[in-house]
Amino acid sequence: MSETVLEARKISKSFYDPVRVQVLKDISFSLSKGEFVSVVGKSGCGKSTLLYILSTMDTDFEGDLLIDQESTSGKKEKYLAHLRNEKIGFVFQFHYLLNEFSVLENVMLPGLKLGKYPHEQIEQRAMDRLKMLDIQSLALKKSKPTFRW
Description:
Helix content is 30%, strand content 23%. The chain is built from 4 helices and 4 strands. The N and C termini lie far apart (57 Å).
């Protein structure tokens, strides 16, 4: 049996603008180590809201989120930031690469910040991820600013 790494238990979320609008209702599921999952749905159905909750960046919801069988409820922001850095890979719909770094260096940044592995190992792991996505040819490419003077 595979190890559960992410579990959502009865997650519900509402926004108030100015009346209450429920976006998520009783969402429950679990993901095992090595499992790949896609979240699909119509625009406005709550996909991004769910992902923000799963990433621990939104903590204002009902229910419980467990990462590696540990509840994230009531945890302080500093702890959640460390947890995100160590255990969660997340690419936003509108992502921003740091222009002064190459694609490879941008991928390496979380690992370097964590300081858990030597630089060479972080670089190799980052390159492995680029190869997994078949974009290793972009590793040394620097992103360009999106504005002009």
